[in-house]
Fold these 2 entries.
Entry 1:
Amino acid sequence: MQAIVPYLTVSNASEAIDFYKKAFDAKENSRMPEENGKRIMHADLTIHGGTIFVMDEFPEYGSAKHPNAERKSPVGIVIQLSTPKDVDAVYAQAVAAGAKSTQEPADMFWGARYAAMLDPFGHEWMLNSALEKK
């Protein structure tokens, strides 16, 4: 596991996990539901070699509120991909799964192929891959 792991709070962790599987080929490593089984206290996912944790909102324990249309997440997640063509492929897959495009894939001035989108749960995802040096 990497040294820093994003922990996403969402409005429906079961649906979010299903979305991340469709959008990013996420692998679910573990899931811990609360005792009544209605919400997920913790889930561990691997996405393109990186780890993220996902949980439902638990206001009764002081957890962060999930983002929504009025309250966007202040943090974005970057998936660093191996090749520029991977940016296009993952972008197309995520948009087909229900992500909302905020930046179509493009070659950027900083020397990368880049794209960005919002998932249905209010989290921003960015795709990045270094361009070949000329």
Entry 2:
Amino acid sequence: MKLCVFDFDSTLMDGETIDILASAFGKGDEIAAITQEAMNGKLDFFEAITRRVGALKGMSYDEAIKICENLPLTNGAEQTVAELKKRGYIIVIFSGGFHIATDPIAKRLGANAAFANILRQKNGVLTGEVGGEMLFDFSKGDMLCRVQNLLGADETQTIAIGDGANDRAMFKYAATKIAFCAKEILKKEANAIVDEKDLRRILQYTP
């Protein structure tokens, strides 16, 4: 069993979903500042996600879906996932973002599963509320343990790839911890660092 877990925003996808949605809704600068604080570990993740989603209250749900169906992949993402699958890896996506973003890309890339959050909507309009399985600083680590237990995989068979502070939780349970174009707070806990924005560069760390 070989397991490779990707963070989504600014790792598989070239950007931050919440920032892209906020920009379309006229709240770009406000939300981007909170995102930077959270990814640098200066703000509790739950507080950050609830504040940012709250700012999207009133946005059209259909517009949010259309935006998320056209998010840009990071350079080399398709080739990297295809090569990892050839090498026998189970590919899983973890995101502190939203299923409306991760699910289309998971399908496009042929990932085995995606875990993220849900933007609540009522009558076709975002309510400003969020739920899901990736709401806390510890969530990715907790979910990685669950996935490993289900698959019968252990730390030595696991690779984790991310860029922000909330990826530290999953690094604890992976033998190979790749910081990809990452914040300094994550680089300190990585044993492999890739600073070039080309996901194919991670393949040298994935036997």
